[in-house]
Design goal:
284 residues, alpha/beta, 7-stranded mixed β-sheet, 28% helix
C-alpha cells in the first residue's frame, strides 16, 4: 500500500489573524470535525485592499473575527473554492458588511480555469479542479508559488468524493493536472500547508488506484454490495465514517463502470449489486 505522508502538526489560535507569508494571513473558524479537520481556514491576501479565500461557515464568531481583525482594511474580493457549507456561507454576511464581490465557479463573479483576480501587489489565477465537487477551484498566487488547494488536496486527510456531484474520474484527472504545475507549496482550507506537493499528489493518485484495485479484487471474490466491500476494504474504520466510505466506494464503482471494468444491475447507486464483466449474470 502507498505510504501517504500526512501533515497534521498545525499551530494556530481560533479567531486570531496570523501572518503566514508576506502576502498571506490566515484566520481559522471554530468548526473542527471529521470532515473539516481543525476547522476552516480563511486566507487573507494582500494588505490594505485585500481578498479573502474561503470565508467559511455562517458562524457568527468567525464572521465577527474576520471583520474585527481586518478593521482599517478593505475587503474587496471574496474567492470561494467550492460551495460546501463549511467554505462559503459567511460570504453573505461579509458581503453585506463590506460590499465585497464574490468570485467562484457559481458565484456572482463567475471564474473559469485561467481567470485572474488582482489587487495591489497580488494576482490570483483560478485553476478548475473538479472531482471533490464539480465546481471546485484551486487558486494560484504565482508571486509566492502558492496554490490554495481547497479540499482538492489536503495534508491531514484524503479528499472525500461523494456522487453525484463528486466524480472520481474528474478527481483523478484534476490530480494529474496539478503535476504539470510548478507550485512550491499548497495551502488547503483545512489543516496545515503541504510543503512538498508533487510527491503528495502522486501518493494520492496511487492510493486511489490501489483502492480501485482492492474493490475489483473483492468483486472477483464474490462481494456484490457496497457494504460488503466497505467491510472488507476499510479495516478498523470508525462506525461514524462507514457512510462516507460507502459513498467513496460508490464513486470508485461509477468510475470503474465507466471504464467497462464493472457491471451493475441498474444505474450505479448505494443499494445496487455489482459484478465483474463475464461474472454470473454479467456480460459474456
Amino acid at each position: 500500500m502507498t505510504d501517504i505522508r500526512f501533515y497534521r502538526d498545525f499551530e494556530f489560535k481560533y479567531g486570531v489573524l496570523e501572518t503566514v507569508s508576506p502576502l498571506i494571513r490566515r484566520i481559522v473558524a471554530r468548526n473542527p470535525g471529521p470532515f473539516t479537520g481543525p476547522g476552516t481556514a480563511t486566507y487573507v491576501i494582500g494588505h490594505g485592499r485585500v481578498a479573502l479565500i474561503d470565508p467559511g461557515p455562517a458562524l457568527a464568531s468567525h464572521i465577527e473575527a474576520i471583520l474585527h481583525t481586518l478593521r482599517g482594511e478593505t475587503i474587496e474580493d471574496i474567492l470561494i473554492t467550492h460551495t460546501h457549507s463549511d467554505h462559503w456561507p459567511a460570504a453573505e454576511a461579509i458581503q453585506r458588511a463590506t460590499g465585497a464581490r464574490t468570485y467562484g465557479f457559481n458565484m456572482d463573479q463567475k471564474l473559469r480555469d485561467g481567470d485572474v483576480v488582482a489587487g495591489p501587489g497580488w494576482q490570483i489565477t483560478a485553476v478548475h479542479t473538479p472531482g471533490h465537487t464539480s465546481d471546485h477551484l484551486c487558486f494560484s498566487l504565482a508571486r509566492e508559488r502558492v496554490l490554495f488547494s481547497g479540499d482538492h488536496v489536503m495534508g491531514w486527510s484524503t479528499s472525500v468524493i461523494i456522487p453525484p456531484d463528486g466524480d472520481m474520474a474528474a478527481y483523478m484527472h484534476s490530480l494529474e493536472k496539478l503535476l504539470d504545475r510548478d507550485d512550491a507549496i499548497y495551502m488547503p482550507t483545512h489543516g496545515p500547508a503541504i510543503p512538498d506537493p508533487k510527491p503528495h499528489v502522486r501518493a494520492f493518485i496511487e492510493h486511489r488506484r490501489e483502492r480501485s484495485a482492492a474493490i475489483l479484487r473483492r468483486l472477483a471474490l464474490g462481494d456484490a454490495t457496497i457494504p460488503e466491500i466497505v467491510e472488507a476494504v476499510y479495516v478498523d474504520l470508525s462506525p461514524g465514517l462507514r457512510g462516507a466510505a460507502g459513498r467513496s466506494v460508490l464513486a470508485h464503482l461509477i468510475e470503474l463502470a465507466g471504464l467497462g471494468k464493472v457491471e451493475c444491475d441498474g444505474p450505479p447507486a448505494l443499494d445496487r449489486h455489482y459484478l465483474l464483466p463475464g461474472g454470473p449474470g454479467g456480460r459474456q
